[in-house]
TrEMBL record:
PROSITE patterns on file: COPPER_BLUE (PS00196)
Cellular location(s): Periplasm
Entries under NCBIfam families matching the protein: pseudoazurin
GO molecular function, one term: electron transfer activity
Binding site for Cu cation: H64, C102, H105, M110
Gene3D superfamilies reported in the protein's UniProt record: Cupredoxins - blue copper proteins
Keyword terms of this UniProt record: Copper, Electron transport, Metal-binding, Periplasm, Transport
Pfam families: Copper-bind (PF00127)
Transmembrane domains' residue ranges: none
GO cellular component, one term: periplasmic space
Cofactor info, note text: Binds 1 copper ion per subunit.
Name of the protein described by the UniProt record: Pseudoazurin
Blue (type 1) copper domain residues: 32-116
Length: 151
């Protein structure tokens, strides 16, 4: 049952939409009090997407938000900032690493990373993003996420 649900979620996340003739995907990140990685999480907390794809931050449970961490955003890319309980959809046009947080639960480690694009362009700000300092729980989760993006 659990795995069937996951497969369905995966199919939904991979649903593609047509934008100006190019195929762009829309992904979903849920904001949760409790997930597979523990308390106060974005799920999935790591995404690899293509330029032009968008991510919908779902207010699955109340009390959360999604907003950019400016020091973990590619140079020149727009910042996003959802209010508490707000569901936002963000389109990522510029390649690179995007770190984001839930404002109320940043110190509890409610953070996530989106890698846009592939190769050099996607990693242009990787070292800068990895070098940003955070409270201990956020730091620990970011470290695991960056390990997952290393290959
Ligand atoms: Cu939160």
């Amino acid at each position: 049952m659990r795995s069937a649900t996951r497969v369905m979620a995966g199919l939904l996340m991979a649903a593609t939409v047509m934008i100006g003739g190019a195929r762009a995907a829309e992904y979903e990140v849920r904001m949760l009090d409790r997930g597979e990685a523990g308390m106060m999480v974005f799920e999935p907390s790591t995404l690899r997407i293509a330029p032009g794809d968008s991510v919908r931050f779902r207010a699955t449970q109340p009390g959360h938000s999604a907003e950019s961490i400016p020091s973990m955003t590619p140079e020149g890319a727009p910042l996003f900032k959802g209010r508490l309980n707000e569901e936002i959809t963000v389109t990522f046009d510029r390649p690179g690493i995007y770190g984001y947080q839930c404002k109320p639960h940043y110190a509890m480690g409610m953070v996530g990373v989106i890698m846009v694009g592939e190769g050099e362009a996607a990693r242009a700000n990787l070292e800068a993003a990895r070098g940003v300092s955070h409270p201990p729980r956020a730091r620990a989760r970011f470290q695991r996420m960056f390990q997952g993006l290393a290959d």
